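User: Please look over both lines:
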Amino acid sequence: MVGTYNLGMVMLSLVVAVLAFYTALPLVAWMTASRVGFAAAWLSGGAIAMGIGIWSMHFIGMLAFRLPIPVGYDLALTVYSMLVAILTSALALWLTSRADLSVPRLGLGALLMGLVIALMHYMGMGALCMVKAISYDPLLFGLSIAIAIAIVASAAALWIVFRLRHDGHRYSLRMIAAVIMGVAIVGMHYTDMAAARFAPGSLCGVEADTQLPLSWLAAVVLVTLALLILALVISVLSRRFQQRTDVLMQSLAKANADLTLAALHDPLTRLPNRVLLHEHLLQNIERAQRQGQRFAVMLINLDGFKVINDGYGHQLGDRLLVVVAERLNAHRRAHGSLARLGADEFVLVADIADPGDAAALAAHLVQALAVPFMVSNHELRLSSSLGIAQYPEDATSGPQLLTHADAAMNHAKHAGRNRYSFFERSMTATTRERLQLLHELPRALELGQFVLHYQPKYCAEDGRPIGAEALIRWQHPERGLVPPDSFIPLAERSGMIGLLGSWVLRQACRQMHDWRAAGHGDWRVAVNLSAIQLASPSLLDEVATTLSEFMLAPGQLTLEITETMAMRDAEACLRTLGQLNALGVRIAIDDFGTGYSNLLYLRKLPAHELKIDRSFVQAMDSSAEDIAIVAAVVALAHTMRLQVVAEGVETIAQRNTLERLGCDQLQGYLLGRPMDAERFIATVVAQRNGPRAAWLAELQTASNERPPGLHAQRRPGRAEQRSGPPWKPASSRVWPSPPGSPDTPQRHVPPLLFRFPIPDSTHWNAACISWANPPPAPPCPSPKTAASVQSFPPKNVCARPVSRATSRSRASCRRRPYSVPACSR
């Protein structure tokens, strides 16, 4: 008995098979990306959709086959065949959702899938229950071809699906996998159907009560087909939704990457920041523990960066930091990691073999940073202070290594900068002490532990006290008197310097009020301004309110600023100082010579005083060049109608030299140390009748006997010039002759040359103040030292004291200004 096929139904069966697999394929991707509970749901849904599709394809193919006898299908076997199809689909989906698909697993899955599909087919054929059973010709040939086709096709399809498990929306490969699987199943079905033989006179033996009508079977197939089409529509819609989702996910991924970069890297230099540095340190520690290695943490601080950043602006400072980071990256080792902690601090983590290796790398980095940088057509010079902490000798954790490297860096900075230093245990005590002071600062201000000490200032011409400089001290209950160098930098870092500055201003004005009540209304008190106070918009109101509260004249208050502070924001500084000057407050430029020394800008500042830094005063004892610098500064200040204050006067020679050079005011340990207010009054009163009275009398005598020359012909101050007659410069200075020596003519010296003293001629300097009781002449130099002494005195300066007993030597000095005078013998 021979059957026929309906070609349309055959094509429909192929379409159903491909459609079922194509619809179920995205479920693999969704199942892979879902959590465990949702993955099981996606697996069940996909297995049902794919299994019913395969089962529908089989029975559509059976409906396409026409026999000349009526046929029916057994209900139980038909349902069982559907369950087999669903289980087969579940097996395929489960295999392709695994993390890996090895060759043995692929082969086993393909074999099981082919056998189960073949089982489903023969169960469907058996559901016909033919009287005179169906035979196959040849049986083994048809069966082997069907199984081979199923196994090979299943393997190829499984592999493609596995490749698509994370991207079920690549439609070309998805369609290829669906076509391969569909053709495999349809091909196996129709191959077996062609091998089937129906004997003549065969009948369908399905009983009426268990028979599944063909109309029902067709309805089930049609419903299945409709469901698959609906699933396909949903899949297409989900594709568009997924595309939009993918775009959003890509944007989100990029945003997350940018946020991660921003959270873990410095936005300026693109170097790892502190957070990522700690991760790198943890990784290095774990690796060093496993491999028994060592590494070093080097903390690098840029010396002088703040001055450049304040002077040239933050924009150029940022570009300089980028160039510094590039240079450090170029000089670090291949396996080292560089990070920026913030501001002007960098950290390098590098593998080392021994401390000598670390020292060589540190020296190389210090030398590299000492090379000038060219930034925006500016040649900028920096130095660096570098601290080294080694693992595991110094610490075994990342935070401890950074702390110890910071302590070593601070030690290198205090030791002179432009160098490196290894960590030592003694350094931690200093660091802990600084942290403790920083923690105690706010409480100390609340408890009133700060006090003001006053260092007296004297008029250089007549020696009378003219006021003091207010200096803050911390009266710590346990540490005693803490100097300002120990807590002022901490106050600047913590932001408390503004509160401390306001407190100093009020206390100084309160003390001036008390002194005025005690009869010292002509005294002035100088107060140092911090950069934060100078930049504060409320500074003018604060000063005016404080002066009004204590009923003080504005001229009794002197506010001191440094050159660096004035250059930080030039326009704003000029505006603020102009307002203070209009109020009547005196302005002093402190530490002159140690900052920018910008003469053009200095000319614009509404200043009244210029303070020579103590470093130049201390160097006058041993350097003629520094004496020349001080002389030039004094001449410059007087030309600009500024009064000159010399601080740091510690020796009589320094005092005499500064007075002779024309300084207006003197301040230093020789004249008085900083002391509290009560001791200050007692000391100044005692000095009027004490040992200092001799010096005051000596100064007064020299002032009375001196012809107009030094102070009398000096330019007046700005306030004096406003009210006095125009000043005319003198062409020369006249140095007084010894009293009672009419035979000795007065010696005329050019205006600046008379200001150069001899550093080692202390007695000569004293003789310059008063000719009374001149000291004896120093002994002649020995032949061994004559040459060295002859080359030391500057031009036009006599190296011996001039006295009545040495008139011949004096004449000799005038004739030979470059040589040592002839011996008095």
